[in-house]
Amino acid sequence: MITKTMRGLAGVAAALAILPLLAANPAQAVEALPLADAIQELPLAAESREGYQRTSFKHWVDEDRDGCSTRAEVLLAESRVPATVEPRCKVTAGQWYSYYDGVTLEAPGGLDIDHVVPLAEAWDSGASGWTASRREAYANDLGSERSLVAVTAKTNRSKADQDPAQWLPPLADARCTYATDWVATKLRWNLTVDQAEADALAVLAEGCGQETVEFQPAS
Q1: How many whole angstroms separate alpha carbon 178 and alpha carbon 116?
Q2: Which of 86, 117, 162, 214 lies 20 to 30 angstroms, CA to CA, from 46?
């Protein structure tokens, strides 16, 4: 995986907490492509939101049964200092860098855990045909650091369910990382793109130098 600039460093305890989930899924080969080439690998298809409900994706569960929800796991992994954790894995303090807008926070209440590719967008792009268990796996994907990210609630809510043709991080320096994360997540889960989305990503890639997309297909 690419190390994201200024992203939080995972603590030893957080890493160990995630290991059981990773071990439960047999490893598949990691693939790596230049960003522009990776965009070309994304299947092109029209999108449909018919039948979408957020409840179709069960999220923030305790997938590995270690007492910590997916939200808590991400907070633990991305805190740049050892996080303060109260009983029942309630994360109360730490230090998080929201790479969408370059803001650092020490209280988790100001953070949302963003699905880089929003749940509604995933539905539009192929998840509507998945089983409930696969949608749950997507919504709680701790197997890739690209899938979920702690960011300010303000930026997450301004993004909502928009794709890169409609929304980009307000911090210009974050946009190549964001495009790489987006493409890696779509490739990991074999999701499609529509034409406007593909065009926007291609324009972004032109200014992203030698950015490389590394991803491991989800099992």
Answers
A1: 8
A2: 214
Closest CA to 18 of 57, 48, 63, 55: 63
Amino acid (one-letter) located at 1: M
Burial (CB count <10 Å: 0-12, 13-18, 19+), residue 115:
buried
Which ranges of the chain does DSSP label H, i.e. alpha helix? 12-24, 35-41, 70-78, 119-124, 132-139, 153-159, 175-188, 195-206
Buried/exposed code over 25-40 (b: 16+ C-beta within 10 A; e: otherwise):
eeeeeeeebebbebbe
CB 126 within 8 Å of CB 192: yes
Least confident of 26-35, 114-123, 159-168: 26-35
Number of neighbours of residue 199 by Cβ within 10 angstroms: 14
- Predicted TM-score (pTM) of the model is 0.86
d(CA 48, CA 64): 32
pLDDT digits (tens, 9 = 90+) for 77-97: 999 999 999 999 999 999 999
pLDDT for 27 equals: 57
Between CA 97 and CA 141, with CA 57 as vertex, the angle to 5 degrees is 45
